[in-house]
């Protein structure tokens, strides 16, 4: 991060990477590999944050695939695996979350090998 003072207001700049990726609906493994590749590329470009589109892990739109519990669980397992690959960069990754039988188009914040939070 860099800091400057502009008109007596302190500002901090960060380098952000926007990953406009072409996912494949239902290909959780392939999409996960794509996400990991883009995270590495962003780190090489010294980005501090990389943001992925909604439902990047499952591909968009997953449609009736979200009706299968094993599909939802596989996308959560993939998210946990991707998190272990994230170190010094912050990654915002789209996935399908579920709670009490309800489905959510969610985003996870990943950093230092962990899922920091989900929205």
Could you describe the 3D structure shown?
This is CN hydrolase domain-containing protein. One of its GO terms (molecular function) is glutaminase activity. It is a single chain. The chain has helices spanning about 30-45, 70-85; strands spanning about 1-5, 10-15, 15-20, 50, 90-100, 100-110, 115-119. The protein is α/β, with parallel strands linked by helices and about 120 residues long. Helix 1 runs parallel beside helix 2 (about 70-85). The longest helix is centred in the N-terminal third of the chain and has 17 residues, at about 30-45.
Give the helix/strand layout.
Blueprint: E1 2-6, E2 9-13, E3 16-18, H1 28-44, E4 49-51, H2 69-85, E5 90-99, E6 102-111, E7 114-118
Parallel strand pairs: 3-4, 4-5
Antiparallel strand pairs: 1-2, 5-6, 6-7
Helix pairs in contact: 1-2
Poorly predicted sequence stretches spanning 5 or more consecutive residues: none
Number of domains: 1
CATH-scheme architecture: 4-Layer Sandwich
The proportion of residues in beta strands is 25-35%
**CATH class, anyone?**
Alpha Beta
Global geometry: globular
Major sheet characteristics: 5 strands, mixed
Kindly, what is the distance between the CA atoms of the first and last residues, rounded to a whole number of angstroms?
A: 25 Å
pLDDT averaged over residues: 94
Adjacency order of strands in the biggest sheet: 3-4-5-6-7
Instruction: Provide the CATH superfamily.
Output: Carbon-nitrogen hydrolase
Write the H/E string, N to C.
EEEHEHEEE
Class per helix and strand makeup = alpha/beta
How many strand segments? Answer: 7
Per CATH, what is the topology? Nitrilase/N-carbamoyl-D-aminoacid amidohydrolase
> Helix content range of the residues, please?
25-40%
């Amino acid at each position: 991060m860099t800091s400057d003072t502009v008109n007596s207001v302190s500002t901090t700049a960060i380098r952000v990477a926007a990953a406009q990726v072409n996912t494949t609906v239902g290909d959780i493994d392939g999409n996960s590999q794509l996400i990991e590749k883009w995270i590495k590329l962003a780190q090489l470009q010294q980005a501090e944050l990389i943001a992925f589109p909604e439902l990047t892990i499952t591909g968009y739109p997953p449609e009736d695939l979200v009706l299968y519990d094993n599909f939802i669980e596989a996308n959560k397992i993939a998210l946990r695996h991707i998190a272990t690959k994230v170190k010094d960069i912050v990654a915002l990754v789209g996935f399908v979350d579920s709670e009490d039988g309800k489905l959510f188009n969610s985003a996870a914040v990943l950093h230092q090998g962990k899922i920091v939070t989900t929205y």
